[in-house]
Write a sequence for this structure.
């Protein structure tokens, strides 16, 4: 195969052939900076003696040399646009709200200048069809027809929103003028502003005509660029080198040649086109198109392909990876094989996708929800606290103390985290983040302080972070300056929105050795560059070419009427960039995602389909191989799970028996046995393997916390009363004090539940206010119930007495003793009657049907709500009796929120509607059933299998394991 001469090699040969005598005086202008660096590399390989190198510039850099203005960053321009907008709109929203519209309006203004559109005509106010002819007297017949059609379809009957749209059109021209004046006064500009300024005043362009000027590799020129390049050709004898191919230039159906065909007919540009036109695209080469089921799969395949290429002798410098989507950069970097020791990234990476953005955003949210009170001091909302403490920049710095702190916050469900708790960990960075912002501080300055605190500790561990730190520092510095000019007060929420918008539009330009190593590029960066081996990701329709860009104050038909770019323009540019990849390459690998989701069609790009249909007809040796890599879809049968009771399982169960030392023993509770009755496998996961779901933080009282706070509130009320009077007898005189102490006991319970210590107060907010009121009503209702029952004696409360019992059973041909335990909410005695009471805040009911139901997990559904509660309450009665004997009647009772406020409420358990006045008659049968249940659990012949009632799986922590 003959050697293919790349475009930059062609430029180098042209310079040596035509300008060797004035080599150092030449200036070569490219669409971007990168091509100039590669050109100098080619020149250094050809020239074997010292010479002055020609200057190479991008078109933008070149044209800015003729202007006294400095290119401004987007943030500055949008702020100037905001000030201009305010000058013509009496009332406007804040800068943060304007930012999105400002970006859109700035793009429109840039296009107006790039395409040399008369702004006065374009922004002429349109009211209705009748005034159209008068207002648009300057339009030709076709333009007027297009705009009339738009207004007939878009505004057939004006609504308020449409009227506001037209009102906005009214002020676009004065906003445009004011904006131009403001940036001129400050001697700043945007690219197309300078271009237009030079087209309107070409006398600003002063240049030595004797110094050669070459424009190389241009394709889709805007009207301003076209006018300026023609000016350099006619006035300064500039030369043009086109990077073209006959395949798309000579076929009028190929959108890739739309611009170039027009230039070929132009009297100034046309003379510079080569004769004959190169024919490179249809030459034989290897093209592979691979469909992959996931985007990360594309990255993995590219890594494997690079490995194969290098094994067969390909050089790193001959390989390029092209990324239409910048978020694929890091998956690609992670997939590149280790043998690639040099790599150059030639694309920007959005600030919003960096780890540092996550840390700074969490810091903003930390300040947004910070609270300072005399009682509690400075405290922070738990979510940003955990996000910050678990961030890699901090987490790896001091792992163990942070682990412990995060664990404590989650364990206590600590909604507010206090500054002094964090300060127990010695860290300058933590102290910088977890502080109060003073009145003289700004959020921008606060974030800059965090960046400075990160310092070398981050840079040393993470190579790319130096770039992140620098660009965030620059952005925040500029943002701080802009906000300082604001007269209105910028609150934290507004700053957060502005920060997000600003970081979204800023990209990090990675630095490196541009002409060495494997290249990773965005699509635009490939202009003028040629590689033997091209690997390109995301070749999906609507990604390449991209879907139509939305967001403009100028509707499509009006854009067409005034010659502004439309999606057809975009498609033509994308098509040219695609076919350029074929100019000098030998192997091309395209990958696309077959998975249709998240805005993806799952369809390969139409450009791929075009080359499949068109090029092989011209050259049968042009081969395209299509592949799809995916796993065959098979619906696996969900098999039942049953865990055999092996010796290993029995060894794990031994902790609930007396066969291990007492210090290692654990006890089985009524809740554990209830779980076994419902689902043996769930019992195995929870109490044999001891698997637990992670600690989940809840801002409000969920069911678990609600029940805990209610229990603790009642407990504190009775404990404090008994302590104060020195007696366990509750009589009528105690209730006045108890009623006045409800709020204090409730706050104490909240503080304990949410991890507050000392003199700190619990702040009731949002849903917690409602939940607190429900608890207050429940507690007062208990007090009212107890008033009618006095006098009675409190025998035990949950916090006071732990009921335990060793039950001897015979299983696996040997006797063992199983340890059982219960934390009973309340046991009281009146006369010869003992009540064993359980507080319930769920859907539990007092009706159990027949006594046998409590051991039957498959009981009729109407008794399910009472079965668990009935089992648990009988368990309490039984274990109480084992400690205190059977001298008194034992009444199992349930104070459940579902029935508690009914006028005929009766706390006693019921069998078929009849209250159980004394459970002693049932206890022998209960004990026998208990032993049978325990023997089953410890029996090596009984597996731990799944329940058949799938309703019980709905909220199970382990349903993912069971695939139910």
């Amino acid at each position: 195969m003959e050697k293919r001469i790349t475009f930059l090699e062609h430029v180098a040969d042209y310079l040596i052939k035509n300008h060797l005598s004035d080599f150092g005086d030449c200036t070569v202008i490219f669409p971007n900076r990168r091509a100039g660096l590669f050109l100098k590399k080619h020149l250094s390989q050809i020239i074997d003696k010292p010479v002055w190198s020609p200057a190479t510039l991008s078109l933008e850099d070149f044209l800015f040399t003729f202007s006294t203005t400095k290119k401004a960053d987007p943030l500055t321009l949008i702020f100037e646009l905001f000030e201009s907008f305010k000058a013509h709109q009496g009332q406007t929203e804040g800068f943060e709200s304007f930012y999105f519209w400002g970006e859109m309006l700035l793009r429109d203004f840039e296009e107006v200048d790039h395409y040399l559109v008369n702004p006065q005509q374009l922004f002429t106010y349109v009211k209705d069809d009748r005034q159209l002819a008068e207002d648009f007297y300057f339009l030709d017949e076709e333009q007027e027809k297009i705009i009339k059609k738009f207004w007939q379809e878009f505004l057939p009957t004006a609504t308020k929103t449409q009227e506001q749209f037209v009102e906005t059109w009214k002020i676009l021209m004065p906003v445009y003028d004011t904006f131009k004046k403001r940036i001129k006064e400050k001697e700043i500009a945007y690219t197309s502003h300078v271009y237009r300024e030079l087209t309107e005043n070409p006398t600003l362009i002063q240049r030595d005509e004797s110094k050669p000027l070459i424009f190389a590799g241009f394709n889709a020129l805007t009207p301003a660029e076209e006018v300026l390049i023609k000016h350099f050709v006619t006035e300064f004898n500039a030369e043009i080198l086109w990077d073209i191919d006959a395949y798309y230039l000579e076929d009028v159906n190929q959108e890739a040649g739309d611009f170039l065909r027009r230039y070929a007919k132009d009297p100034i540009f046309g003379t510079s086109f080569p004769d004959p036109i190169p024919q490179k695209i249809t030459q034989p080469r290897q093209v592979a198109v691979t469909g992959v089921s996931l985007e990360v799969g594309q990255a993995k395949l590219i890594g494997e392909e690079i490995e194969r290429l290098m094994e067969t002798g390909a050089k790193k410098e001959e390989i390029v990876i092209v990324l239409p989507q910048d978020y694929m950069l890091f998956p690609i970097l992670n997939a590149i094989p280790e043998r690639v020791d040099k790599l150059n990234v030639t694309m920007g990476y959005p600030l919003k996708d960096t780890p540092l953005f996550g840390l700074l955003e969490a810091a903003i949210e930390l300040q947004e929800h910070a609270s300072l009170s005399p009682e509690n001091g400075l405290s922070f909302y738990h979510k940003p606290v955990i996000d910050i403490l678990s961030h890699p920049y901090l987490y790896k710095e001091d792992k163990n103390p942070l682990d412990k702190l995060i664990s404590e916050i989650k364990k206590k469900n600590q909604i507010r985290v206090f500054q002094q708790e964090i300060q127990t960990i010695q860290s300058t960075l933590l102290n910088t983040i977890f502080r109060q912002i003073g009145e003289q501080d700004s959020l921008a300055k606060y974030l800059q302080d965090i960046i400075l605190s990160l310092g070398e500790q981050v840079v040393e561990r993470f190579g790319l972070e130096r770039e992140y730190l620098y660009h965030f520092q620059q952005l925040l510095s500029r943002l701080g300056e802009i906000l300082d000019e604001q007269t209105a007060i910028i609150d934290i929420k507004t700053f957060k929105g502005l920060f997000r918008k600003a970081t979204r539009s800023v990209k990090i330009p990675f630095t490196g050795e541009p002409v060495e190593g494997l290249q990773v590029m965005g699509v635009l960066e490939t202009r003028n560059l040629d590689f033997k081996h091209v690997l390109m990701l995301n070749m999906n329709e609507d990604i390449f070419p991209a879907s139509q860009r939305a967001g403009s104050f100028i509707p499509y038909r009006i854009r067409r009427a005034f010659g502004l770019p439309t999606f057809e323009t975009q498609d033509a540019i994308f098509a040219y960039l695609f076919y350029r990849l074929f100019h000098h390459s030998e192997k091309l690998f395209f990958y696309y995602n077959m998975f249709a989701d998240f805005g993806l069609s799952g369809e390969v790009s139409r450009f791929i389909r075009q080359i499949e249909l068109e090029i092989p007809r011209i050259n049968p040796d042009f081969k395209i191989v299509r592949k799809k890599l995916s796993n065959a879809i098979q619906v696996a049968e969900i098999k039942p799970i049953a865990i055999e009771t092996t010796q290993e399982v029995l060894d794990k169960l031994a902790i609930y028996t007396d066969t291990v030392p007492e210090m290692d023993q654990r006890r089985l509770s009524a809740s554990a046995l209830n779980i076994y009755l419902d689902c043996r496998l769930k019992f195995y996961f929870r109490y044999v393997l001891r698997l637990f779901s992670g600690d989940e933080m809840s801002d409000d009282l969920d069911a678990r916390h609600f029940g805990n706070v209610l229990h603790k509130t009642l407990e504190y009320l009775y404990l404090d009363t008994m302590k104060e009077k020195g007696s366990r007898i509750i009589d009528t005189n105690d209730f006045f004090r108890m009623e006045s102490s409800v709020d204090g006991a409730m706050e104490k319970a909240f503080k304990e539940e949410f991890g507050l210590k000392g003199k700190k107060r619990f702040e009731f907010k949002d849903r917690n206010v409602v939940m607190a009121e429900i608890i207050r009503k429940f507690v007062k209702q208990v007090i009212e119930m107890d008033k009618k029952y006095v006098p009675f004696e409190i025998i035990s409360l949950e916090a006071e007495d732990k009921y335990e019992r060793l039950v001897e059973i015979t299983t696996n041909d040997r006797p063992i003793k199983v340890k059982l335990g219960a934390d009973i909410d309340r046991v009281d005695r009146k006369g010869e009657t003992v009540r064993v009471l359980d507080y319930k805040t769920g859907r539990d009911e007092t009706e159990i049907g027949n006594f046998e139901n409590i051991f039957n997990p498959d009981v009729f559904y109407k008794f399910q709500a009472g079965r668990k509660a009935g089992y648990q309450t009988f368990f309490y009665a039984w274990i109480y009796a084992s400690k205190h004997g059977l001298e008194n009647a034992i009444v199992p009772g349930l104070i459940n929120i579902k029935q508690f406020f009914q006028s005929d409420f009766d706390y006693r358990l019921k069998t078929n509607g009849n209250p159980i006045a004394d459970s002693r008659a049932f206890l022998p049968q209960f004990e026998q059933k208990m032993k049978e249940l325990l023997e089953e659990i410890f029996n090596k012949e009984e597996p731990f299998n799944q329940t058949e009632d799938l309703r019980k799986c709905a909220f199970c922590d382990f349903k993912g394991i069971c695939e139910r």
Remarks:
- The chain has six domains: 7-66+205-241, 71-197, 286-347+513-629, 352-509, 643-695+798-957, 703-790.
- The first helix runs from residue 7 to 19.
- The chain is about 45% helix and 15% strand.
